[in-house]
Design a protein that fits this description.
The chain has one domain (9-79). The chain is globular. It is built from one helix and five strands. It is mostly beta strands and 92 residues long. β1 (9-15) and β2 form a beta hairpin. Strands 1, 2, 3, 4 and 5 form a five-stranded mixed sheet that branches. The mean pLDDT is 85.
Length: 92
Amino acid sequence: MDWTNPHAWFHFDVKSEDGTVTVWSVETIGPNGLRRLGISDRRLFQIGTEYKIDIHPDRSGKNLGFVNSFTFPDGKFIKVGFPEEEGGEPPR
C-alpha cells in the first residue's frame, strides 16, 4: 500500500482460475478520504487474505484501475469510487 496524496495505491496479487498470479495496482481516493470511510489502518489488509475488489480498469489494458469498492473476508463492504451507472451494475 502506498498511502500518498492525492491518491492512495494498493497492490494486489490476483489469482486467475488457471492458477496464474498477476500483480494489479489500483488507485483510490486519498488517505484522508479512506479514513472517513473507516479504512484508517493498513492492518485491515493482511497478506495472504482474499478480498473482493471492484474496479474501473485502465483503458490501456494494463493491470491498473480505480477502486469502486472493497469487500472484506468478513463481508464488510466499503464503497470507495465512482457512483453506479443508472439502472445497472457498477462497472467492473
